[in-house]
Amino acid sequence: MASQMEVATVEASARLAAARSAAAAAPARPRLLSVGLACVDVVNSVFTFPGEDQCCRATGQRRARGGNASTTACVAAQCGVAADWLGATPRRGSPDAEFLLADLRRHGAGALPVERPRCESAPTSYVILSESNGSRTIVHARGDLGELDAADAQSAPLADYDWVHLEGRAGARGYLETCVAALEGARTVASLELEKLDGVLDDLERRVDVVFYSRERAERDGFADPAAFLAAKAAAIGGPRVLTCGWGAGGAAAVAVDAAGAVDAFRCGVLPGVRPVDSVGAGDTFNGAFIAARLRGEDLETALKAACAVAGRKVARVGFAGLAYPPPEDIAAVPSL
């Protein structure tokens, strides 16, 4: 007769075999590579934003990982995507590098750091967060960490991913151009975030599959509504491609332009009932959730609403921990406009 230990061993082996079989049968998660900044955020909370040349006492201070591309990766990972971040870091083992990489892991994202061995510190964003309305004001210090350049792009494993998202950073133009050229005509979806007001990267919007525009970009071009801005963009740059524009508390818009120039356009509001607590990274959250939705096979309108729903859940909390792909009721709650 088999001993209890032998029986337990057989049962454990059977469970392990079943787990391996289930893992092998499960569909592989879609893969995202998000390329750009990871930085240290020093967030000072205040009750109301101070006026110029005034002094006020912070109600709290925290140190967090920031950066558009790294946050996009962290949000997409929590929404079910196998997401990696790629970007420059200080030397391996430095306090800032270890802090950033540990936070990426904590949010389920992988990392492909491009080490700058002579650099000790990461870029730092000094954020003033108003508790009265959730708004944030940012002063960014790049420091001496070099941007990604064209030489760095030669080793980027772009073809390993289903989607490559590029944060539009003027100082990394050589890197971005090299990546865009490599992705043109490839099976991998290429997206570009154009947030900053300079026009250094404007010509690249015609060479990618998806463009994420900021409200500031639309206002720079004289538009007070995201739908009107995207309609003008669609007419100017054509397709096939998808364009989105987030509008903060005003929701977001998205258009799909086909090769003949025909446009499908959608506009939606925000998740209702949300009390703003922390808007730092809300736009990056929108981008990560939108990418996750499209990689799940969602249509454009559903992806737009899903992204707004996740952004709403983010604004209602400090940081990004605990975000997830929204349930159907959250998506349905986001109103069409």
From TrEMBL:
InterPro entries: Carboh/pur_kinase_PfkB_CS, Ketohexokinase-related, PfkB_dom, Ribokinase-like. Pfam families: PfkB (PF00294). This is Ketohexokinase. It comes from Aureococcus anophagefferens. Keywords: Kinase, Transferase. Gene3D superfamilies: 3.40.1190.20. PROSITE patterns: PFKB_KINASES_2 (PS00584). Residues 31-319 form the Carbohydrate kinase PfkB domain. Transmembrane segments: none annotated. It comes from the Eukaryota. The keyword Electron transport does not apply. The keyword Lipid metabolism does not apply.
